């Protein structure tokens, strides 16, 4: 039809007939509607050529065409020309300009046009007015830009011009205020709207409800929903979705599900967005079972989840660290036609790599290739980084080669994680070579790359190389950062070089890097390890008070552990109190340190209180916690409760280690409760834990203590079969037991086996046999073995000679005992105090005091200090034989040694010797008690 109209127009022109401007405007508007913009301008030229005078409608059509093309400058130029030639723009003209300025987002220019209208005023013969729709466009535009104040001024200006705003104008402005969080102003505007005769509709109610949801005023939003229902207004799914989304943000999953039910009861079918609001909330709370229920409900109502919903769920499952569940979910939805985008696939690959499921990650990437979706650089980075964290450089470089083959170019991050792979794998030399290679590649190395290698050098203790690397870094115009200095500090502290570390921290300050929390923690930890608790405390005070760095739980734990180690529990309690006053809550490590410290101090009740408190505040005990508690119970003789704690561990899913089992088994073995000890060892095996050497040692010691040598020997055979080397002390104990039971040949067999296993040299094995025979009184057999040792050229130990000499003295074979003393001297074996005491005791008991005193003098000549036992035996013998001169001499020696104080008042010698004997015995008993209590005695 348009072509025919144009033909007729042109024929009329050829015949000199002018078409009316009205007819021309009809043709022009038709051309514009068909978006033939170039033809509009050509037709206008033809009109002018035929001297047809255009009217304002003609210009309005052309103006709209320019605006449609986005040629607002030309439109503005034409607008000026219209006024210059005397045409009066109509509302349509102004609205066209304003609308198009608004559509192009040039609201300021649109406002200038409105201001221009105001300046023109109102003429008597024809009013130039803007319509309500013009203002609606402007208000909407400024609200979209978030300039609600400007939109409000325009709205007020509209009222000043006596233009009546529509319900839409109010709704737009209400929505704008709500988006800015100004629900109070929006509510006032809603009331003004109703006072002006406009009933709020679904749009205005929806805007207000959405606004209240955004500012967390759920009660107000729900009241508005009730008001809508009272006014018989349909609450659409958009409003319900806003309410459910707000419940998601407040983690009120029950209320969100209630809104979903209300929505369905109202006859409104939820859309994907409605379900998404609930599923997003459940994802964040980890409610996987409820998510499955919602997805099932969606399928029943015929609403199919979209890609965004699936991607969101995969993201949250991965965020929760359940990579296997995410992969399983992806597999399920893949078979129903879901095609994940690259971002979702990379999220899944990253989650798999973080769980070290690298085989699954690579298989998944191959799956994406089979789907004709090429992995991007990020995909490869995730897998290379996974191999790097695992310390698998071969795997990392294999994936790197694949990446190159697929046309991806490595960047700084790529080279950094490849270097990390070599470092984490312990390949320091290869890492250094690779680093020097990438140094030749432009823009392949940054500060992070240097720090990776620096950390590895420090880890290996290569501090000189570390300092050289920092110098190299500066040469290459890369300035060390805080991480660089922290790595160096950590390296020095790890090697115990506290002075260079402190010097480095001072040097940092001159470079403008003030030590941060990490640096201070390293220094404090190093000082504590070196036993410098006062210096560590001073540094802590400097950090908090001088530098204003708030301490964290790690620093407090470091100090608490240091003071606990030396038993300064008052300092520990002060630090714990300080932590709590600062609002720093003790963590699991804090409780473990405190519990272990109180156990060491034998304050079991305090440890148990801490254990209970730990559970009450929601901290789960770990292996270290249970180990300390069980240790305390065992030390207090409450092993049965320790076993119950062990059972509690297993029920809570905490796997006990062999240290805990060994602790209990050792204590039960010491108490000779072997039945329970064996039960615990069987429990270890049921948990797929192999008893260690310490486990078997405890069992064997317990069996030997009960004299069950056959069972003990059977356990030793099990140890040998399992490749665990028994201790020679076990064999010696069994040799003693066999000798005591009269099983001499059994003892010899044990000796031979001990020697064959290479547990001890032959002289030790033979000596153990001699001592075993002596202890059970079989001196003749012991002498035969000793004689065999002499013939074999084996020199017995001093302890062996002493043992057999003790046996000989007991049966009054003093000549044989003294003969062995001479043999010892021939073999250049040094006689110790114990050997002399054995001989002196034997001589005194058999009334050979003179010979005993000779040995006493010999001891003094050899610079061997007689002990209390020596003096007690000699005093008893002197008193018995009433040897005055020797008694005086001995008392003087005892006084010189400081064992007793000199007597000022002369007493009877016999009385003085009796007093000395009593005091020496008291001193000996006192020392025994100190030894049993674990105190060192000089």
UniProtKB/TrEMBL annotation:
Keywords: Repeat. The keyword Repeat applies. SUPFAM superfamilies: HCP-like. PPR repeats lie at residues 20-54, 55-89, 90-124, 131-165, 166-200, 201-235, 236-270, 271-305, 376-410, 411-445, 446-480, 481-515, 516-550, 552-586, 587-621, 622-656, 692-726, 727-761, 762-796, 797-831, 832-866, 867-901. It comes from the Eukaryota. It holds the Pfam family PPR. PANTHER family: PENTATRICOPEPTIDE REPEAT DOMAIN CONTAINING PROTEIN-RELATED, TETRATRICOPEPTIDE REPEAT (TPR)-LIKE SUPERFAMILY PROTEIN-RELATED. This is Pentatricopeptide repeat-containing protein At5g55840. It comes from Dioscorea cayennensis subsp. rotundata. The gene is LOC120279079.
């Amino acid at each position: 039809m348009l072509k025919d109209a144009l033909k007729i127009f042109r024929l009329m022109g050829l015949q000199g007939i002018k078409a009316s401007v009205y007819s021309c405007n009809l043709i022009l508007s038709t051309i514009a509607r068909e978006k033939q913009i170039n033809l509009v301008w050509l037709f206008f030229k033809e009109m002018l050529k035929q001297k047809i005078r255009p009217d304002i409608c003609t210009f309005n059509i052309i103006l709209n065409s320019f605006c449609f093309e986005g040629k607002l400058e030309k439109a503005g130029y034409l607008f000026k020309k219209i006024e210059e030639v005397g045409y009066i723009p109509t509302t349509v003209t102004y609205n066209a300009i304003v609308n198009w300025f608004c559509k192009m987002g040039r609201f300021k220019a649109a406002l200038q046009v409105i201001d221009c209208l105001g300046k023109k005023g109102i003429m008597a013969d024809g009013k130039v007015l803007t319509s309500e729709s013009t203002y609606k466009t402007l208000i909407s535009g400024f609200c979209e830009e978030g300039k609600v104040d400007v939109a409000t001024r325009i709205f007020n200006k509209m009222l000043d011009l006596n233009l009546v705003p529509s319900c839409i104008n109010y709704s737009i402005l209400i929505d704008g205020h709500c988006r800015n969080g100004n629900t109070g102003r929006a509510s006032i505007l809603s009331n003004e709207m109703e006072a002006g005769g406009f009933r709020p509709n679904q749009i205005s109610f929806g805007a207000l409800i959405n606004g209240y949801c955004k500012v967390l005023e759920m009660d107000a939003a729900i009241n508005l929903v009730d008001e809508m229902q009272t006014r018989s207004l349909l609450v659409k799914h958009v409003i319900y979705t806003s309410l459910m989304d707000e419940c998601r943000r407040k983690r009120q999953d029950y209320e969100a599900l209630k809104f979903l039910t209300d929505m369905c009861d109202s006859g409104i079918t939820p859309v994907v967005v409605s379900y998404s609001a609930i599923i997003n909330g459940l994802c964040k709370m980890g409610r996987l079972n409820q998510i499955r229920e919602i997805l099932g409900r969606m399928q029943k109502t015929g609403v199919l989840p979209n890609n965004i919903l699936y991607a969101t769920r995969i993201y949250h499952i991965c965020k929760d660290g359940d990579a296997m569940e995410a992969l399983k979910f992806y597999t399920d939805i893949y078979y129903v036609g879901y095609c994940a985008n690259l971002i979702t696939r990379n999220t899944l690959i990253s989650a798999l790599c973080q769980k070290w499921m690298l085989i699954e990650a690579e298989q998944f990437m191959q799956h994406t290739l089979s789907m004709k979706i090429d992995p991007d650089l990020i995909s490869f980075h995730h897998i290379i980084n996974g191999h790097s964290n695992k310390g698998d450089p071969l795997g990392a470089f294999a994936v790197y080669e694949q990446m190159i083959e697929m046309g991806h170019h490595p960047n700084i991050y790529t080279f950094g994680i490849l270097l990390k792979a070599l470092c984490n794998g312990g390949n320091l030399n290869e890492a250094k070579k690779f680093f020097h290679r990438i140094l030749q590649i432009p823009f392949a190395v940054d500060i992070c790359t240097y720090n990776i290698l620096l950390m590895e050098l420090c880890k290996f203790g290569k501090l000189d190389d570390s300092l050289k690397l920092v110098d190299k870094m500066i040469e290459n115009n890369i300035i060390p950062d805080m991480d660089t200095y922290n790595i160096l500090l950590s390296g020095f502290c790890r090697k115990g070089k506290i002075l260079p570390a402190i010097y480095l921290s001072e040097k940092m300050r001159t470079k403008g890097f003030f030590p941060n929390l990490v640096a201070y923690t390293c220094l404090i930890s190093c000082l504590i390890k070196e036993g410098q608790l006062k210096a560590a405390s001073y540094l802590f005070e400097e950090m908090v008070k001088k530098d204003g760095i708030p301490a964290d739980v790690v620093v407090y734990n470091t100090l608490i552990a240091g003071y606990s180690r030396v038993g300064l529990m008052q300092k520990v309690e002060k630090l714990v109190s300080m932590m709590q006053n600062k609002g720093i809550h003790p963590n699991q490590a804090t409780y473990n340190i405190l519990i272990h410290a109180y156990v060491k101090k034998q304050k079991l009740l305090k440890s148990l209180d801490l254990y209970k408190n730990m559970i009450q505040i929601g901290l789960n005990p770990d292996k270290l916690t249970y180990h300390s508690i069980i240790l305390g119970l065992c030390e207090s003789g409450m092993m049965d409760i320790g076993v119950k704690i062990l059972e509690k561990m297993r029920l809570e899913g905490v796997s006990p280690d062999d240290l805990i089992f060994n602790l209990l088994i050792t204590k039960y073995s010491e108490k000779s409760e072997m039945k329970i000890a064996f039960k615990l060892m069987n429990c270890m095996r049921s948990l797929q834990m192999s008893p260690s050497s310490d486990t078997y040692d405890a069992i064997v010691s317990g069996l030997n203590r009960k004299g069950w040598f056959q069972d003990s020997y059977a356990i030793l055979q099990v140890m040998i079969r399992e490749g665990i080397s028994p201790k020679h002390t076990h064999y010696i104990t069994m040799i003693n037991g066999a000798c005591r039971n009269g099983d001499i040949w059994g003892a010899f067999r044990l000796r031979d086996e001990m020697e064959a296993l290479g547990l001890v040299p032959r002289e030790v094995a033979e000596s153990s046999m001699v001592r075993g025979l002596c202890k059970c009184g079989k001196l003749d057999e012991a002498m035969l073995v000793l004689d065999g040792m002499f013939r074999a050229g084996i020199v017995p130990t001093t302890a062996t000679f002493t043992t057999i000499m003790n046996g000989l003295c007991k049966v009054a074979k003093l000549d044989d005992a003294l003969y062995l003393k001479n043999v010892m001297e021939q073999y250049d074996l040094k006689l110790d105090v114990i050997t002399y005491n054995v001989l002196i005791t034997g001589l005194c008991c058999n009334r050979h005091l003179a010979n005993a005193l000779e040995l006493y003098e010999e001891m003094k000549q050899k610079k061997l200090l007689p002990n209390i036992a020596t003096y007690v035996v000699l005093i008893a013998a002197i008193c018995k034989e009433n040897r005055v001169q020797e008694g005086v001499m001995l008392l003087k020696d005892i006084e010189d040694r400081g064992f007793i104080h000199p007597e000022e008042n002369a007493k009877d010698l016999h009385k003085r010797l009796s007093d000395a004997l009593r005091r020496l015995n008291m001193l000996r008993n006192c020392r025994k008690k100190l030894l049993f209590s674990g105190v060192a005695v000089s």
